[in-house]
Amino acid sequence: MTRAAAIAHVTDTAFWVGALRANEAKRSDAVFREPLASLLAGTRGASIARAMPDAALVQWGVIIRTCAIDRLIGEALNQGVERIVNLGAGLDTRPYRMTLPPQTRWIEIDFPSLVQWKDEVLAGHTPACVVQRIGLDLSDRAERSSLFKVLGSTSIKTLLIAEGVMPYLTNEAVADLATELLGIPSFYYWILDFDNSGARKIPKRWAKQLKAAPFLFQPGDWFKFFADCGWQVRNVISSAEESERLNKSYPFVFPQGLLMRALPREMRRKIMSVSGAALLAKCD
Fold first, then answer.
1. Does the bond joining 102 to the residue before it have cis omega, within 30 degrees of 0?
2. Domain segments of the chain: what residues?
3. 8 Å CB contact between 166 and 195
4. Rounded to whole angstroms, how far apart are CA atoms 19 and 147?
5. I need a labelling partner for 158 at 20 to 30 A (CA). Which of 4, 65, 83, 234 fits?
């Protein structure tokens, strides 16, 4: 599967992120290794990653986010989660690289074209648990509602993941999805990456590249937004915390990296703490 470097559809962002994870695996000091990422992202993902602005900063952010979510998944499994539903799974290969209980059911939902590609590439590779992939456009409310009802017909304690998905949805669409998920009794927890820096305009250098997949979700207060939808924060791992844990500093790039390193440590940590990943649970 090949295509020009430009992002023509939101599915191209999956190849972009896959390439960034593959890049991490090539480093001698890699904080995780996802060998199948390179196979899935291919030359298409690599070309998109090279064409995007602020490559080092984006690479750092994706890797920090990935590791934080890994930890939150482990926390949810320790709480008795038996099934994981990855909404907008993209080219994620966690079931193949993480140590997971073999009885865990891992369900991935994404556009049919991505699911077909993933099935083809990963044929012959064995995951750590039971994996099922479902081709579905999550913006199709009728179809997703039917699927959620099927998944909710059992009492299996379920963790939801939606990594890198919310930015491409409007505030209204996110609220609608959050409310719908809240109504499924077996959906106990939800992991999301967050950016609580408030509404902001996308820089011009990004606007052209993301014209076909713009960032739409702009909550004034990320945590309050989801609390109002019935989901309360159970645990937060900020980018600052995960960066320090991994000893993976903010990239030394001009001008952002230079400015960040010139700031006092506490101010730097405060700025980096507006993003990260969170484990949500239904409000009491």
1. no
2. 55-200+213-282
3. no
4. 30
5. 65
Say if pTM beats, i.e. exceeds, 0.90. Answer: yes
Listed in sequence order, the residues at least 6 apart from 245 whose beta carbon sits closer than 8 Å to its beta carbon are none
What is the mean pLDDT for each group of 10 consecutive residues in the chain (284 residues)? 69 96 92 94 94 90 97 97 98 97 97 97 96 97 96 94 96 97 97 84 77 91 96 96 92 78 81 93 88
Q: Which residue, 16, 7, 72, is CA-closest to 46?
A: 16
Q: Which two tokens stand for residue 28?
A: 């001698």
CA gap 42, 184 in Å, rounded:
37
**Architecture category of domain 55-200+213-282 in CATH:** 3-Layer(aba) Sandwich (3.40)
Parallel/antiparallel/unpaired status of strands 158-162 and 275-282: unpaired
